[in-house]
């Protein structure tokens, strides 16, 4: 672990429900990080393809068409989008923690996930949100405790949780007991829910 290094949080909007365009945006921020001598870059929750606020705004029964599109715009870990991002991490020497809507390869099952990629492009691991919050359950499946892991990197021992997982004492303790040194607490990039400003207008905290 480096004794001193520069980390940064991405405060930005994705190209909503467009995984190809948002992948390019992810890579642009990796390039910017390199120029700014940033070694660790943390993105918001489900930056690809964006957080689906519509699920909290409209009746569930009218949502199937847009839910189907959201699933199509979710990324597979072994798919081309993540491969391009890994290559960018390697080319620019930046370690990232990236929030995505992950689609299990060959299925329509999705997870709210954080992807950990080392500065040499190595995929360190994936954490799947243990319990989707509230109506998120119409999109994302429950994650598994086996993804509640920390990952040694050039920057230190990395861990992370998504959104309300950060309030789960047991989940935080599990990471602490693994020697976590850097925690990426990922939240959606922007809250549009009136009445929740005090608790939901939170950016990435690392």
Automatic annotation (TrEMBL):
Protein name: CN hydrolase domain-containing protein
Entry superkingdom: Eukaryota
Pfam families found in the cross-reference section: CN_hydrolase
GO molecular function: catalytic activity
Span of domain CN hydrolase: 5-206
Coiled coil: none
Matching InterPro entries: C-N_Hydrolase, C-N_Hydrolase_sf, Nitrilases_CHs
Family: Belongs to the carbon-nitrogen hydrolase superfamily. Nitrilase family.
PANTHER family: CN HYDROLASE DOMAIN-CONTAINING PROTEIN (PTHR46044:SF1), NITRILASE (PTHR46044)
């Amino acid at each position: 672990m480096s004794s001193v290094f520069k980390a940064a949080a991405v405060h930005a909007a994705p190209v909503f429900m467009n995984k190809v365009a948002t992948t390019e945006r992810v890579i642009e921020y990796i390039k910017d990080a390199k120029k700014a001598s940033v070694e660790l870059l943390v993105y918001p929750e489900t930056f690809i393809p964006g957080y689906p606020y519509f699920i909290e705004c409209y009746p569930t029964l009218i949502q199937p068409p847009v839910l189907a599109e959201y699933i199509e715009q979710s990324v597979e870990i072994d798919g081309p989008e993540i491969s391009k991002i890994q290559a960018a991490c390697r080319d620019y020497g930046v370690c990232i923690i990236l929030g995505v809507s992950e689609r299990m390869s060959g299925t329509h099952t999705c997870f709210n996930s954080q992807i950990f990629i080392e500065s040499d492009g190595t995929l360190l691991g994936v954490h799947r949100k243990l319990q989707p919050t509230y109506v998120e359950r119409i999109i994302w499946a429950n994650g598994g405790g086996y993804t509640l892991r920390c990952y040694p990197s050039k920057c230190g021992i990395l861990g992370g949780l998504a959104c309300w997982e950060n309030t789960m004492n047991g989940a935080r303790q599990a990471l602490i007991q693994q020697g976590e040194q850097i925690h990426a607490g990922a939240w959606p990039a922007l809250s549009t829910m009136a009445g929740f400003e005090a608790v939901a207008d939170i950016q990435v905290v690392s």
